[in-house]
Amino acid sequence: ALLITNNGSSRSLEINHNADNSGVVDEVVRIMNNGTRLFTIESDGNVGIGTDSPTSLLEVSDTSGDVDFKLRSSNTGSSTIRMGDAGNISAGYIEYDNNVNNYIFATSNTERLRITNAGNVGIGTSSPSTSLDITTAGPEGIVLSQDTGNAAISARLFLESSAGNIAVMNSSGRFNVRTGTTTGSSSGTERFSILQDGKVGIG
């Protein structure tokens, strides 16, 4: 066992690596267990857990299985991963609120997306009441853009049911509704359409 106690204001432990020492491995700290490397701090400051050659500030590796990373807070607290820069350490973050069991995703210090404990997803709202709830303060909405490389079947909204599927789409500038469709294809029979000039076609 090793116990280091410091009752003053100076450092308790300092490990100083001199990179000029020839023949010295380029590591500041290495922790081993029966020949297996557990923890490494490189001279460039990179930290490796389960790896002897971390390529980022922190790299966790287990090439023989899954990697499990845990953040644990109180029952009413939150576990948060914050991302930012020197001017704003919390510009973006991912938070799990244990008090209400919600996932929260934020950019520019503002919540953008929330997943509730019921599985409802809210964009622009912190209290989604349906599977997908999108709330905007202006004329913004949902955009389905046509892929020019696959124009025949892109930009469609498929409504699935055990009794048959329906597709809603913008077909060459006209609003089009088809029945008997197969999700992800251009199949189906056109039943209803509205042209740009307002003319309506049924059948």
Helix/strand layout:
Blueprint: E1 27-33, E2 36-42, E3 47-49, E4 58-60, E5 78-83, E6 92-97, E7 102-107, E8 110-115, E9 121-123, E10 132-134, E11 156-159, E12 166-171, E13 174-179, E14 189-194, E15 200-202
Parallel strand pairs: 3-4, 9-10
Antiparallel strand pairs: 1-2, 2-3, 5-6, 6-7, 7-8, 8-9, 11-12, 12-13, 13-14, 14-15
List keywords for this structure.
mainly beta, single chain, six-stranded mixed beta sheet, five-stranded antiparallel beta sheet
Task: Summarize it.
Helices cover 0% and strands 37% of the residues. By secondary structure, the chain is mainly beta. The protein is elongated.
Structural commentary:
It is elongated and about 85 Å long. The chain has a six-stranded mixed sheet with strand order 5-6-7-8-9-10, with no helix packed on it. It has a five-stranded antiparallel sheet with strand order 11-12-13-14-15, with no helix packed on it. Helices cover 0% and strands 37% of the residues. The termini are far apart. The chain contains no helices and 15 strands. A hairpin with a 2-residue loop joins strand 12 and strand 13. 7% of the residues are buried. It has 203 residues and is mainly β.
